[in-house]
Amino acid sequence: MSYWKKGLTNNVEKTLAAKHQEDMVMQFAFDDPAFMPDFRLTNIHLADGKYPVATADYFANDLYYQIEYSVCQLKGTQNALGVRIEVKNEGYVDKTANVRVKLGYYPEDEIFDYHYMPYW
């Protein structure tokens, strides 16, 4: 079974349309001053290994960050994205937790341009 939809890779019009579609991107920054979490240290898993609720875990500066994502269909092609962020202080000193969230819509080929590199 192929990951790509049938005909997408051989259809120039569909490929160009996919490259220029707008994607919703949600970015997070933690602490103050803010830093971006290292995606290579991200632990992402599904609830009970099967439900469509993804959880990402981060640990930095004695703070444990847990981000939970879920999507539910409203009607037709409309969906709602739910995000829950929980921060726990794992250290011995009181700290203030800061989480910044940036939501944006960007053309696919500008943010994920490495997806469109030719493989010869």
Give an overview of the whole structure.
The chain is mainly beta and 120 residues long. It contains two helices and six strands. The chain has a four-stranded antiparallel beta sheet with strand order 2-3-4-5, with no helix packed on it. β3 (51-60) and β4 (63-75) form a beta hairpin.
Ordered list of secondary-structure elements with their pairings:
Elements (H helix, E strand, L loop, with lengths): L11 H9 L1 E9 L12 E5 L3 E10 L2 E13 L2 E12 L9 E9 H4 L9
Antiparallel strand pairs: 1-6, 2-3, 3-4, 4-5
List keywords for this structure.
120 residues; two-stranded antiparallel ribbon; 2 helices; 6 strands; 11% helix; globular
* Quaternary structure state of the chains depicted: single chain
- In percent terms, what proportion of residues is strand? over 45%
Q: Which regions contain 5 or more consecutive residues with pLDDT less than 50?
A: none
Gyration radius, rounded: 18 Å
Cα distance spanning the termini: 22 Å
Tally of separate helices: 2
Please outline the major beta sheet.
Answer: 4 strands, antiparallel
- Please state the average pLDDT score: 78
Give the strand order, joined by hyphens, for the main sheet: 2-3-4-5
The beta-strand count equals: 6
Categorize the overall geometry. Answer: globular
User: How much helical structure, as a percent, in the residues?
Assistant: 10-25%
Look at the helices and sheets and give the structural class: mainly beta
Order of helices and strands: HEEEEEEH
